[in-house]
Amino acid sequence: MNAAIFTKSAKGLILASGLIAASSIMGYAQDAPVALGAQATVPLSGVYVGAPSGITSLGGHSFDLSSGNLVSLSNGQSVSFSGSWANATGAYLLLNSANTYLWYDQTVVGNVTLTFSDGTTTSTDLMVGGNLREWRTGAGFTVNLITDPAAAQVWSGTATDGSAAVIDMLTISLDGTKTLTSVTVNDTNGWGALAISLAGLTISTPDPAPAPQPTCSRPGNSCNTPAVVNSQSQKWQQPAATTPSATTPSDKHTNNGHHSK
Fold first, then answer.
1. What's CA 138's distance to the chain center, in Å?
2. Minimal CA–CA distance to 33: which of 57, 52, 50?
3. Model-level pTM greater than 0.85?
4. Fold for domain 32-206?
5. Which among 204, 200, 169 has a CA at the least distance from the CA of 53?
6. Residues 155 and 167 sit within 8 Å (Cβ to Cβ)
7. Structural domain boundaries of the chain?
8. DSSP label of 193
9. pLDDT tens-digit profile, the chain (261 residues)
């Protein structure tokens, strides 16, 4: 076997293992579901058939739907949730609208404002047909599509009237360098019957990095790669040194225990 070729392969395996471990640590995060509390007063079971409940995963994130209720905001209303989420990397909201008639299309009807411990804020507009749409997509004459990549459908089913219904998730990405202290959803619409519905909220924060796993440092280490396993094969091992066995001089006068004559 060519030792130079094996050395290059082993180095490549070591580098690849290190890169995989590093990328896994960088991408590691955890969700902090926020209970909507007493501000949520509209039963999910009153609008959806078989709505998700309890601590549930939607769109790859965990939400606390234990109350079984959602928050419904009409013109000029708002709702806030306070906490302390260090190095927050994202806010995820289960967000739709009701009575979203066609004349609201491409209209900004609200916003989500995030406040940080240093006093700074960031605001995301809620635009009908962009990142916000009707929850009852089977209803007629309503805006039933979203075009913003930050908004995505995470649940589909039926409304209590039998028409198609959905739950969407709005993602607000953060750089993970600040402590998030408040999330506020504002309905800024000033006319008509449109309402904004918030069914869930979760904040993602960094998880403690897992301990790095040992990697191969040279051929023969305890790695399970085919190349290294092959390198430990018996066929590559030097034969064990043998010690000549002592021989007992034979009695030339004996043969199989019988004396010769």
1. 30
2. 57
3. no
4. Jelly Rolls (2.60.120)
5. 200
6. yes
7. 32-206
8. S
9. 444 433 333 333 333 333 333 333 334 579 999 999 999 999 999 999 999 999 999 999 999 999 999 999 999 999 999 999 999 999 999 999 999 999 999 999 999 999 999 999 999 999 999 999 999 999 999 999 999 999 999 999 999 999 999 999 999 999 999 999 999 999 999 999 999 999 999 999 997 656 565 554 555 555 555 655 555 555 555 555 444 444 444 444 444 444 444
